[in-house]
Specification:
Layout (H helix, E strand, L loop, with lengths): L4 H8 L3 H9 L6 E2 L5 E2 L2 H15 L4 H7 L7 H36 L2 H4 L3 E5 L3 E5 L10 H12 L5 E6 L5 E8 L5 H4 L4 E5 L3 E8 L13 H9 L9 E10 L3 E11 L2
Antiparallel strand pairs: 1-2, 3-8, 4-6, 4-7, 5-6, 5-9, 8-10, 9-10
Keywords: DNA-binding, Transcription, Transcription regulation
Organism: Lactonifactor longoviformis DSM 17459
InterPro entries: DNA-bd_dom_put_sf, MerR-type_HTH_dom, MerR_fam
Amino acid sequence: MHYGITDIAKMLGITTSAIRYFEKEQLINAGKEKNGHRYYDEEDVFRLLSYMKYRSMEIPMKQIITQFSGRENDWRVIKGRVEKAKDKALEKAEFYRKLASQIEQHLRSMELIEGLAGKYEFDKSPAVIFVQDRAGGWLPKDRKKQMEAQKWVKDMPNVCLALQKAEGDEAVFGYLVSAKSSSEELLCTDLDKKEIPSASCVHTIVKAEEDFAFAPQKCFEKPLAYLEERGFHLEGTSWGKILLVEVEEGQHLHTYVELWLPIC
């Protein structure tokens, strides 16, 4: 039976250009009708379906084409290639399992907004590790430190964007990771690193002002006033993580920040 190029393309869900490329690479060999039109037979269909099978395993196209070129004639080579594809699939499965878990943790924090925004509770904070560049916060000026910061950026959402109350009325931006989920590679850094232990805290969520990116210290003002009114004193490092950003028409940013203020 003969098949036209459009029939093959529709059945496999690929373009006619891709089929012509496979011809060029000798994965298939099209015949020609008397009128000059290309046609494909059962063997071509079988070759293309086999290609699709291996491609669905995310085996690289060039390797599959080599397999069908006649330059390989050993089932052991093909088996080894499929085994490598399985190992890569397992690596991806583990990656996405961890990603789903990290997203779930992030969602739990976001779900607190409805009940805790603008309100206060007493709770035990998690132990975390905060890193920042002393001069640039999130983005160091030093090229070597920029590469260090890149590791933390790539590890999001396990890593959170965060801020820490500094001395006086200042606050600094940085990156935050749970002490439980930090890796040795991540912690081996030239950035300024601070381990913040679990502590009894006043816990709240604030909706930061529009100038948050320029004046992050403002988000601590109301919680600190709340502590002062009730006679509490800070005992340790106050910190927070950014939960989400709403963008109002006109590009105005409204940032929700979860804050932990250790007290005595």
